[in-house]
């Protein structure tokens, strides 16, 4: 439970602009208000981190850049397809960033990293695969099932991420406990091979 609480905060914070955008779309606020609100929140997240003197995570910069680009394109053209295509582009970029070893390290307490760092790296690849799958699904829905897109974007990205997040946390917890028991009994070194 401690690991879950430690990880969920940064995950929600990193995605706050996108979450606001998706929720507003689902409740029927419209593309323009949802885009403006998502932009303001994404700017606020990055501004808050900078004001605190913290390093802004790569996912936060990506989210902000994509929100600003698609918001400008949508507001200048009045064409919501820019916003509909944005998640595909974002998922492809984020998936590519997630291929980098160690990107999940900020989501786990340092004392656990020495125990399950290898598991975190494997889950990094699984998260990247989810992003690439989400990119493909978003493009298909946006192009061929446009009327369903607001419902899709409001449910699938959050549901799939929270589902994988729950699995990820559970697996890491089980493996951590097993490795700690083995280490205590002298059967395994600090980290698995």
Automatic annotation (TrEMBL):
Record keywords, A-Z: Cell membrane, Membrane, Transmembrane, Transmembrane helix
Organism: Sphingopyxis italica
Protein name: Intracellular septation protein A
Presence of the UniProt keyword Cytoplasm in the record: no
Record's signal peptide: none
Superkingdom assignment: Bacteria
Keyword set includes Transmembrane: yes
Residue ranges the record marks as coiled coil: none
Transmembrane segments: 20-46, 58-76, 88-104, 125-145, 151-175
InterPro entries in UniProt: YciB (IPR006008)
CC annotations in GO: plasma membrane
